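Worked example

This section walks through a single chain of length 147. The input is the sequence exactly as stored; nothing has been trimmed or padded.
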Amino acid sequence: MQLRIGGNIASKKNILDYCMTLSYNINMSTTTISRTNNLIQVRVPADLKERTARLFESLGTTTSDVIRMMLVRADETKSIPFEVRTGAYPISAMERLEEIKATFELEDMPLTPQDIQELVDVELAKTTTEELRRKALREIKERHGEK
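Given that input, the structure is written out below as tokens.
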């Protein structure tokens, strides 16, 4: 089992960034979490358990805390809080970007440099697709004189 964030195998930095992003939400939910005492058991290979326990310890957390963060985030977003892909191999961010560009060009809708930068920002977690969707809707409304 490999933890993937954004389609890529998660690095320590990805996991730390992910955990830091969730920390506020977790802290806000602590009272709810502390009132519960349900057990979840997961079977994983021993070496994976040991490696991830060491990784999480180096990040100042525990496996249980990371699983709890994931469950809280899934509940808040009503989705799996990381990308799940089917396929034989993961593709790189550049391959994904090239695929998106080619798809838009086939539809005779080439991407602007701003579009490409926004896609890169999503990949680098500087923004989310939801934020970009809201921005696009605002721009459309402004062009049509709506508020």
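What to look for: The first helix runs from residue 12 to 34.
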